[in-house]
Amino acid sequence: MHSENMPDIPNPDYDDPKEIYAFFGLTYYKAAVLEHGVLNLAVALLATETPGITVGQVDKLYESYDKKTFGQVIRAARQRFNFPADLESDLKMALEQRNYLAHRFFVDHDIDLQLPEGRRQMIDELIDILRHLQSVDIRMDDLWMSAWEPLGVTKEWIEEKMQEFVLHRKANA
Fold first, then answer.
1. Higher pLDDT, 4 or 123
2. DSSP letter at 17?
3. Taking a C-beta distance cutoff of 8 angstroms, is the pair 89, 132 a contact?
4. Number of helical H runs and strand E runs in the chain
5. What are the strands, taking DSSP E only, across the chain?
6. Measuring CA to CA, which of 46, 57, 64, 69 is 20 to 30 A from 19?
7. How far apart (Å, rounded) are the C-alpha atoms in residues 140 and 135?
């Protein structure tokens, strides 16, 4: 695990009921970031299979795979890439965690939400899930970045494009 590269997780105070929603939002956000990392890998693998692929064709791949569920995107990537066993297992857990957050977390904690100790347990559970999602996301970043390199997309190129985007956005704000 690349813990030295993991962003800091805020320390909860446990005294404000709104903290649950803040930690839920942060955790669900990380699930979405991880999902997009797997999408990046799937699209990169599909793109490298298509000689002479155009930017427009890449955009269409993103559009079509962006409409799929996280599980479907994982399956698409898995069809073209053999994940290391530990990452495969962690990715499966991340999918389960993402689905739990989306469909069951607040249902399973309906009573806990009403009690200070229950809210503390909820926040601690969210922090555990967040740590796992971060560790999987960091490993996924390495994979999708290397999958794009044959097409000339490097970390430096991405950083340059991000800077251009930020400058363009500031200019139009």
1. 123
2. T
3. no
4. 7, 0
5. none
6. 69
7. 9
